[in-house]
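Risk mitigation, structural track. In case the binding assays with NAP fail to produce interpretable data, a predicted complex structure has been prepared as a fallback.
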Amino acid sequence: MAPLNVGIIGTGIFATDRHLPSYQEMPDKFKVVAAFNRTKSKAVAFGEKAGLSKDKVYDDLAGIVNDPEVQMLDMLLPAQFNLDTVKRAIEAGKPVLLEKPIAATMAQAREIVKLADSVDTPIGIAENWLYLPCIDVARPLLEKIGPIVAFTHNSTGPFVTQNKYLSTSWRQNPEHIGGFLSDGGVHQLALVTELVGEIASVSALTRQVRKESGTVDIVFSTVEMRNSDIIGTFTYGSAFGATDKSVFLKIYGKNGTVVVELSDKKKPVVKARFGSTAEEGSEEEIHSVPLDDTFGVNAEFLNFHDTIVKKDKNVFKSTPRVAFHHLACVAAFLESSEKNGDHVKVESI
Ligand SMILES: NC(=O)c1ccc[n+]([C@@H]2O[C@H](COP(=O)([O-])OP(=O)(O)OC[C@H]3O[C@@H](n4cnc5c(N)ncnc54)[C@H](OP(=O)(O)O)[C@@H]3O)[C@@H](O)[C@H]2O)c1
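Fallback model:
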């Protein structure tokens, strides 16, 4: 089969640094054939990297959406533009992959889920953490430590002034709820929910530590899971003073513990200990995780390719419904914090 022709909507940092290289690494599956950007000079520079002819570089959205050569849209604009893009893609009958979070508000997220449910056109949310190889390594170990009773997720780090993402104006003046808590937090929530299940309710406190964040930038919470007795804590924020970068998910069972440790991006690792008591406890097992430099993006793209080829939207893992839950958790954190930590239900759809 010929590669799928991709039209890129929004040629910013992540389109250039990750999406384009990923497509170029899989030339039998994808070919970037067109690009759109509001600021045309950036689309032109992107077009040169992608080897596009000048007539395939757009500064009007309708132009790229309706380009007959484009078979699939890949959209990397701030989340407040996701709903409009979904409507345009559905009208054109073209599959669209949208960058996370699913939307800027819960109202928009609800509408995207309903629209996606109403059509056969595949609409995906690019939550690449759902595709991290550590998930496949951890899953069989979890079966051995069960029943799971609790977990703690911690993703914390120092504030980095030279962060290229932080300097984008739409992140500094976020229209998306929770600012960095939804921008990066949905990745963490994807990992937690993929391994431990959906969150039913939260008690959370948020704070804004850095004015550069535009809104609250740390959350400390306790959570209850849906359809189980599992409880946990979820802590997120990279707005602190000097500290190490720490990303780990520790899952406690009645028969052991599993730790997914992503603090060093280049050395992801999963650790496990088995036994129902201290006396019966095994030595710690250390399972290496295959290194994925794309952090799940290539696997996510392949899953979307498969979805389009099979003409079955259900083949795609990262659906709007799945991504809705992650944003709904952030919305619940914010609401709980406004109520000084009262327990708040996570909206379901
Ligand atoms: N999955 C991941 O790990 C990951 C990592 C990074 C980013 N992302 C996602 O990728 C997307 C792009 O992020 P980025 O870091 O690449 O940001 P970026 O470089 O700032 O790119 C943002 C894009 O949106 C456009 N844009 C910004 N504000 C706009 C406005 N008010 N009206 C119309 N267009 C506007 C920009 O156009 P101009 O060039 O004209 O400003 C640019 O095309 C976001 O959805 C982000 O969440 C995902």
